[in-house]
Amino acid sequence: MKILALFTIFVLIFGTTSTSLVSDAYAQKNTKILLDIATQADTQILNQLDRSYGDLVPSDIQTLYEKGHAAVESLENSLPDNVEQAREDFLAAMKSFMEITRMISEPATEAKLTTSSDTSDRDLKSELNRLHKYFQSLKTIFQKHNMETDFSEIERLFVLAYEQINSGGIEEITTTFHQLESLIHIKNQEIREYSSNSSSDRIIEFALKQLKRIQTILEDPSIDTSTPEFENANSLIAEIKILISEDNISVAKEKFGELNKIMKIIKRSTVE
Amino acid sequence: MNPEIVPIHRKEFLREDGMLFVRTDGILDTMAKIPLLVASMIIVAAVMPIQSSFSSPRILDLIIYPDGSTHVSSEIDVDPLVTDFELDLFGSTIDNFVVVNENGFLLTTDVLGNSALVETFGSSVITVDYDIHDLVSKQGRVWTFSLDAPSDFTLLLPKNSAIVGMTNLPINMEIINDQNQLTLSAGEAEINYLFGTIPNIPDPTIPNIPDPTIPNIPDPTIPNIPDPTIPVDPTSQSDNLTYAIIGGVTVAAVMGVVAIIRIKQKTIKPIHDQQTVQKTETIDTETIDTETIFKLKPDLREDDKEIVRFISNNGGQVLESELRKKFLQPRTTMWRAVKRLERNGVVEIEKKDLQNLVKLRKNMEEEK
C-alpha cells in the first residue's frame, strides 16, 4: 500500500510538473509564432501603404506605422528571454496595424465598389467549395449506412462547375450550381428519411436500456415510494413500454423526456 | 535563578544525544489515512475531466472561405444517458447542417435560431458540421473574423490572405496549402485580415523569417530537416533544449517498450505465423496502388497523398499513432487528415486494441 501511495503521488507530481514543462516549451514556441505573424502583418501594411499612397503617406498613418514597426522590432529583441514583453509588443503592433488598415481601406473600397469581377468568381468558388464539402459529408453518411445510391451525375456536375469557374462562364456556372443544389437536396432528403426510419431501432434499444436503469433506481430502498412522482414514474415506464411495443416511437420519445424530468425530481428529493 | 521553571520541551530539545522523540500513534493515524487520501485524489483526478467535458467541444475547427462564410466542424462529448443535446451555434444564418454520432450515423436535428436540438439517444460523441455567415464581416478591404469560442480552436484563413490585426495571442500557427492556420485559445477573438495582392517587399532588416504569403514554404506535414546553411535561431535553440529533455525521456521509454515487445515476439511467434503475415502484407501491397487512388481522387491534398503513400508502403494499413510519429503531427492535425481521407472515401478507420487502425479502401475502383 505504501508503494502504491508513493507511486500515485509520484505520478500526480510528475503529471503536474510535466504539464508546466510542456507549457514552457509551448510559450517559447508561441513567441516565435508571434514574431512571424507580426512580421507578416508589418510587410503587408507596408505594401498597402505603398499601394495606397506611394511616397505621400499621411502623417497620422505614418506615425501609427512607425509605432507598430517599433513594436515589431522590440518583439524581435525581446525574444527569446522576455516572453511577457514579447506578448505586449505583439498586441501593440497588431493594434497599430489594425487601425492603419481600417484607415486606408475605406476610401479605396468606394472607388472599387462592385467593379471587380473577381468578387463574383470568388463567391461562386467559395459556394461551390462549401457545397462540395457538404456533398462529401452526405456521401460519407450514405457509405456508413451502406446505402447504395448513384452519385455519378453530381460528381460530373462538380467537375463541370469547376471547369466553368476556371473558364469564367458566370451564367453557365450559376445554372450548374442550381442543378447541383437541387440534386444534393434530393440526396439529403433521401438520407434523412432513411436515417429517421433506421434510427427507431437505436432509439428503442436506448429506451429499453434506460428504462431498466431507471427501474433499478426506483427499486432502491432509499427512494420514498409514497410521493406522487414515484407513482408517475412507474406509470410512465409502463406507458413507454406499451408505446414502444406499438412502434409509436415519437410519442415514446416525448414520454421519455417527461420521465427524465420526474427522475431528476426524485433524485433531488432523495439527496435532500 | 530557579532551574525548575525552565520549560520541559526546551529541556528535551537540549538533550545531549540530540534524538527527537515523536508520538508514534500520530504516524499510524496518518499512515491509515494515506490510502483514503490517495483514493480520493484518484477519484477527483478521474472525475474532473468528465465533469468538464460534456458540451464543450473537444475539437473545434473553422475554415474561412474567401467570401467570408465559415465552415464549422466540431466534435463534442455528450451524455450518453440523455435523449437529446442542445447545441449552441455561433450564429443564426446556418447552412448545410449535419450532425453524426460516433458511428457516423446521421442524427435528427432541429435548428432554432442560435441553437440546435440534436436527438442523441445514447450517443457519446457527436460530430457537427455546418456553414455560417455570421462570423466574418467586411469593412472596406478589411475582413474581420470574430468569435467567442467555448474551447481552443483552429482557424484556417483563406488563400492569399494576410493577418493585419488580432486581439489575441495565438497558441500556434501552421501553413497548410499556402493557407495560414492559427490555433487560438477559448474566449473572445478578433482577427483582421486582407487579401494580399502585391508581392511582399523584402525587408533586409528582418533576417530569415519565413513569410507564409510567399510561395515555396516548406510543407509542415513533411518532417523538418535542418538546413546547415540557415543560421540557428536562439529561440529554436531553447525550444530544442526543452523538447530534447521531454523527447529524450519519451524516446528512451518507447525504445525500451519496443525492445521488450520485439524480444517477446521473436521468442513467441512461430515461423509459419511469420510467413503468413509476410504473405498477407505482400498481397495487400499488390492490391493497393497509390497511383490508381490519386487518379480516382485527383483533388487530394499533397500532404494527404503522402499519408496515403505511407499507408500503402505499410501493407495498406497503419495505426494512427504511427502516422503521427512518421509525420510529426499533433493528434488533432493527424486526426483531421485521416478523417478527411475517410470522407474522400480513400481510407476506413477501425478500432484495434483501443487504437485507430487506418486502412486503405480496396473497393475504390468499383465505387467509381
How would you summarize this macromolecular structure in one to three sentences?
With 272 residues, chain A is mainly alpha-helical. Chain A has three domains: 2-105, Butyryl-CoA Dehydrogenase, subunit A, domain 3 (Up-down Bundle); 122-197, no CATH class; 220-271. Helix content of chain A is 87%, strand content 0%.
Please describe what this structure looks like.
The complex is a heterodimer of chains A (272) and B (368). Chain A has three domains: 2-105, Butyryl-CoA Dehydrogenase, subunit A, domain 3 (Up-down Bundle), CATH 1.20.140; 122-197, no CATH class; 220-271. Chain A contains eight helices and no strands. Chain A is mainly alpha-helical and 272 residues long. The model of chain A is unreliable at 108-121 (pLDDT under 50). In chain A, helix 1 runs antiparallel to helix 2, helix 2 (59-78) runs antiparallel to helix 3 and helix 6 packs across helix 7. Chain B is an alpha+beta fold. In chain B, 36% of the residues lie in helices and 28% in strands. Chain B has nine helices and 17 strands. Chain B has helices spanning 8-13, 24-53, 234-268, 271-287, 290-296, 302-313, 320-327, 331-343, 364-367; strands spanning 57-64, 70-77, 84-88, 94-101, 109-112, 115-119, 125-132, 136-139, 142-149, 153-156, 161-166, 172-176, 179-184, 187-195, 317-319, 347-352, 355-360. In chain B, the strands form four sheets. Chain B has a seven-stranded mixed sheet with strand order 4-7-2-1-10-13-12, with no helix packed on it. In chain B, strands 8-9-14-11 form a four-stranded antiparallel sheet, with no helix packed on it. Chain B is globular, with a radius of gyration of 29 Å. The termini of chain B are far apart. The relative contact order of chain B is 0.07. Mean pLDDT of chain B is 70; it is low at 6-16, 198-241 and 267-287. At the A-B interface, helix 1, helix 3, helix 4, helix 6 and helix 8 of A face helix 2, strand 4, strand 11 and helix 3 of B.
